Structure prediction request, 552 residues.
Amino acid sequence: MDKYFGKSVFGGIAVGRIRLFQKGRQEIKNIKADDPKEEIARFNDARSKAVEALQELYEKALKEAGEQSAAILQIHQIMLNDIDFTNSVEGIITNQNVTAEFAVAITRDYFYEMFSSMEDDYMKARAADVKDISERVIRILCNDESKPTDSKVPSIIVAEDLTPSETVQLDKDLVLAFVTLHGNSNSHTAILSRTMSIPAVICPDIPLDRSINGRMAVVDGFNGVIYIDPDSELVREMQHRQEKELYKRKLLLELKGKETVTIDGKSIKLYANIEDIKALTSVTENDANGIGLFRSEFIFLEKNSFPSEEEQFEIYKTAAESLSGKRVVIRTLDIGADKQAGYFKLEDEQNPAMGLRAIRICLTNKEIFKTQLRALYRASAFGQIAIMYPMITSVEEVLEIKKITNEVKKELDERGIAYNRNIEEGIMIETPAAALISDKLAKEVDFFSIGTNDLSQYTMAIDRQNSKTDRFYNPHHLAVLRMINTVVKNAHANGIRAGICGELGADLELTETFLKIGVDELSVTPSMILPLRDMIRKTDTSKTQLQYDLHI
Ligand code: PEP
Ligand code: MG
Prediction:
């Protein structure tokens, strides 16, 4: 039996076989091909698939973003059928007797160099296009579009890392646990594993080679330990532990329908964070007061092209209707940084977490923003939807948003389309800038929701994706707690509510502090709602001192 120690992301025990998920991207080696004819056929097959995918993307983009933005997708199709490109790949396969992916990679590099060195700006710009189309074909050839759960048997997924878009496309029923080499407990992939209630561990030491594929393993998500080839005694012990956890969970279910109030009478609302409408049942199962954060960007991450207004409308409407009148806070698109969808064509950035992401993308590309806003307003006629804007840093941004929302509402009025005219519109406080000017921002919006994941990242200058910085990361840093206190005080002074929707909201060690600060609501992963209610009902805030020097 081999034992590996890592860091727990989400508790729980899993027993099952390992499925190694390796991406094909890096594996373009100079491999000799057995049969050049077969390689040429593979190339042409991948090329046709790429053209088909581009045509689909073109049609969507045409509807969503207009002819001008969509045109590039047509150019890419033409380039894939270009005789010079295809002749080059086929020639390399035949003359050098290599695999199709290797021949495409050589052709890519050759054409890239050639276009880059041209004088004409238009031709120069084609260098990026040739790279783009070649990589699309390579991804298809390397099966890089395969998903970690292509197998039909539930398994423990072991991967170097998983992007949020890979994770969100998983069939939850086929995943027993996640084990990744990289990551951080505040990363979006970690957050997703919590929403799915799947045990997860970050374990930098686990060997990522084919030899572990298919082997039996136990993942102890509570202690962050992985056992490969466990002996029968350990399996029995872990299964016993699983039963105990189930029993604890049953006891918690007795709290359904009970009030969330402390012994000394302080009450607080408990909302759920979700990424997908598949999680709607867990919102009601865990008796949430509503949804405090619906990360709408995951609708975009699941797709290969922009979701239409109609598609988005149906999703938001379903969420509003399923919650039968309870509040559903939908956050507008927070794409960028670790949440990448290829079809946005975001350029590589030196500091993506500080780059063009979230509201900055929406204010730069108004058509994408307006499409989402139209869908949201239309859905607001079917339940209690509230809209929330991410990554705000200034009052000017809020004013610019208001200008756009007014345009959208005016358009809807002109078309006679119904929406909730009293819809609540709030912002996330997740940058130190927003926290420090929250007195001003509070005058412009209906509510605040504090995003402690990004607020911590930007306050401590600690990348939430990077496990190497863990030892410098203090989740209870006084600077962050003081900012939360300031934001709540400024909200209340201006008659608005302030909640927390970052991962810190579910930190039971801080629940009493948040109650003392006067936080109005906590929005957490659904499985944490009842444990929090349990904790709050056992707390008497009048009997203890504030643990931190918050300047209250
Ligand atoms: C946050 O930053 O705390 C937050 C809730 O948003 P996200 O985790 O999606 O960035
Ligand atoms: Mg955030």
Summary: The chain has three domains: 2-23+148-233, 36-141, 257-537.
